[in-house]
Amino acid sequence: MNYYKRILPWENNRRLERLTEFRALVIQYFNNSRAEWMMDERIEEPEAEKIRVKINRMMDEIHDIILHSGVNPSIRYTPSAMVGGYVQNIDLVQNIFNLHRFRITANNLLDFVDRSIGIYEGNRRPALLRAINPFFYLGLVFDLVARIPFVLIGRAGFNRQKVEESLAGRLVKGSIYIVTALASLLTVLQLLDYLDSFKLAVKNVFH
Question: Which of 112, 149, 178, 195 could form a disulfide with 73, with the two C-beta atoms 3.0–4.6 Å apart?
Fold first, then answer.
């Protein structure tokens, strides 16, 4: 999944629709369920049981959509001295059905969803401008070429994401991107019959 600044209008609208749908389901679920003291699981009415299935099926996608809007739906949880335990980061999307155990309300989760919705709403016009910008598509091609080695690494059985996000992986990816961009530039100059002039200009700079 691409970062929100790298998507086109139709994908931006799709993510908005999914977030809006998820938000409505969360409200319906908590309106049809309740938490009681000393109980690990929420007490769910029949409607909540049906909604829980829908939430589970879209949870991973929604989590990615929120993360790729630049929002991390996590909070730092510090248990009370009476309860005990350790300080930890709680992902509110992945722990939606366990929020009551940490005494976290559904509104905390909805705050992150609303923040993400606001970002995608603000991205509508930029996404439209990207759709008519030829350089945006050129950049996508460069990104695709730069990712090819990591795709091969993933198919070989290695952890593609870990390798790609490592320092060495970022350096390799950046180098491939630069080489691809330079090769494209030289090809365009050759097609326009400006390659010799460009070579001469570069030679004069370094001499």
Answer: 112
- DSSP characters over 82-141: TT----EEEETTTTGGGGGGGT--HHHHHHHHHHHHHHHHHTHHHHHHHHT-HHHHHHHH
Q: Is the pLDDT of residue 114 over 90?
A: yes
Q: How many angstroms separate the CA atoms of 45 and 25, rounded?
A: 14
Count CB-CB contacts under 10 A for residue 12.
Answer: 23
CA atoms of 73 and 117, how far apart (whole Å): 13
More confident residue, 135 or 116: 116
Q: What is the pLDDT of residues 159-193, one digit of tens each?
A: 767 766 777 777 776 777 677 777 766 676 676 67
> Which residues, other chains included, contact 21 with Cβ-Cβ below 8 Å and sequence gap of 6+?
58
Q: What are the φ/ψ torsions at residue 52 (nearest 5 degrees)?
A: -60, -40
End-to-end CA distance of the chain: 46
pTM of the full predicted structure? Answer: 0.74
